[in-house]
Amino acid sequence: MRRSGLVLAVLALAGCNALRDAFSAHPEVAGSAAGQTLTVVRLAELAGRAKKVPLRPQALSGLTAVYLDYAVFAQELARGRDMTDSALVLQANWPNVAQLRWQHYHDQLIAARVKLSPDQTDSAYRAGTVRLFQHILVSVPPSAAPKVELDKKQRAEALLRQVEARHGSNFSQIAQRSSEDPGSKSRGGYLGAVGRGRFVPAFDSVAWRLAPGAMSGLVRSPFGFHIIRRPPLEEVRDSFRTELETTATVHFDSVYIDSVAVRRDLKVRGGAAALVRQAIQDVTPAVDDDRQLASYRGGAFRVRDLARWLYALDPRDLNVAMASDAQLGEFVRQLAQRELLLREVDSAGVPLTPEDWRGLKTQHDSVLTILENQLALSPRVLKDSAATEPTRHALAMRHVNDYLDRVLVQETAQFFPVPPFLALALRPGQGWSVSAAGLAQALERAQAIRAQVDSGGRRAGPGLKPAPGPAPAPALDTAKQKASR
Questions:
Q1: Which pLDDT band, with edges at 50, 70 and 90, does 26 fall under?
Q2: Labelling 48: which of 101, 102, 136, 420 has CA 20 to 30 A away?
Q3: Contacts of 20 by beta carbon, 8 Å cutoff, 6+ apart
Q4: Which residues does 191 contact at the CB level (< 8 Å), separation at least 6?
């Protein structure tokens, strides 16, 4: 009741005009940022005349975001902002920064829990519950004729004689040269260290009878003819340790990630799947959406957090058309788990290395150079071409509009949007907003413009004017058609 009374009091003081404006949502404006306005008319012209822009609400929402992000970038250049500030570099490169810091933290965890000593490696080899094998494969197609299989067998027998002549010491060289297993050929025939039962039965039963250093005869499996060897410990000590540590790391990662989720009581909320579908269809409004997708002790994973991850992920990996609610719920759980892992990294105070910084700075500087080249705009150009701050801001917007015209309408320039995390870093304090009513009106206008452009193109035809008089004879008509081609 108090809130309603306060709102009514404010509206009464503002007067009728203010009340009308508050509910009209200014439909003549599609979006605004950094003191600049994208009008409905301008957006409609861009979309309607840009043949490659589909006239759908999501497309116009995306185009508005591109325009406003470029406006903010250009206005920040005009204002003289230092685009290489370290805080901005971190924000603009969030996915890489997060990955680097997690990797450093992960390395610390693994070093403390997974690294094996030489004695542990030797003990694991002698225990034999996990083994490392080599093989040479001469493949046989499933529907091979008897003659083909016989030829393949004879070739495998010839390879067996070669490795037997050297007691297996040349096994790696023969495998690299002659094996037909693309997965192990380049590694000298080495397969990953595995437990019993991981290979097809015909292969597995023979391999697990081999003593260290021993080699099989020909083994027929559904894949073809194999020659199998179990390398001795002194030959594979380092690679065997690496294989064991890799397996242990995968297991540790799974257990650790799950333990973090359990410890923080992570729970996906009902209705999360619908919100995910909505955000994937149009990520722009999701950036400011505070609705919860999942909760955990001490916080929540919200739609705006999802939006940040959506910008970081490859769009080709986000096909939700066939995804069930359960699959989307698991998607939310996985992203929320990663948020919790990054909180663990923050709590541990994991720093970036000097090498990390050099890589991030190089990448950031490269992006700035591309953006400035696309706009034909830089701090130097602004300083040399405009004496006052208002003229610099006006010049910056002329370059933005010119660039987008060249990209979308004239198709004479390459499209390069402001990278999403740089755009998100620049938006705060810029009054960045999109009007749903303005987008709807712009879409309607753009459809009319596109129809006019399309009908004009059809009327123009191939550029020939109708000749006066009656229609030409068929033979002449054919000749004219050939000439017009």
A1: very low
A2: 420
A3: none
A4: 132, 133, 134, 135, 184
**Which residues make beta-bridge pairs with 218?**
227
Three-class SS state of 227: strand
User: What whole-number distance in Å separates Cα of residue 45 and Cα of residue 449?
Assistant: 7
Write out the DSSP string of 132-151: --EEEEEE--TT--HHHHHH
Domain 133-230 matching CATH 3.10.50.40: the answer reads yes
Phi, psi of 94 (to 5 degrees): -55, -45
User: How far, CA to CA in Å, does 251 sit from each of 197, 301, 346, 410?
Assistant: 19, 26, 23, 54
**Token pair of 188, please?**
């000298």
State the Cα–Cα distance between residues 55 and 70, nearest whole angstrom. Answer: 21
Q: Whole-angstrom Cα distance, residue 208 to residue 177?
A: 25
Please list the residues that pair with 409 across neighbouring strands: none
First and final C-alpha spacing in the chain = 76
pLDDT score, position 41: 95
DSSP annotation of 405 reads I
pTM (2 d.p.)? 0.69
pLDDT in tens, 159-210: 999 999 999 999 999 999 999 999 999 999 999 899 999 999 999 999 999 9
Sequence ranges of the chain with CATH classification 3.10.50.40: 133-230
Q: Which residues of 351-373 are buried (b: 16+ CB within 10 A; e: fewer)?
A: eeeeebbeebeeebeebbeebbe
pLDDT in tens, 96-152: 999 999 999 988 888 777 788 899 899 999 999 999 999 999 999 999 999 999 999
DSSP string, 271-290: THHHHHHHHHH-HHHHTT--
pLDDT of residue 459: 56
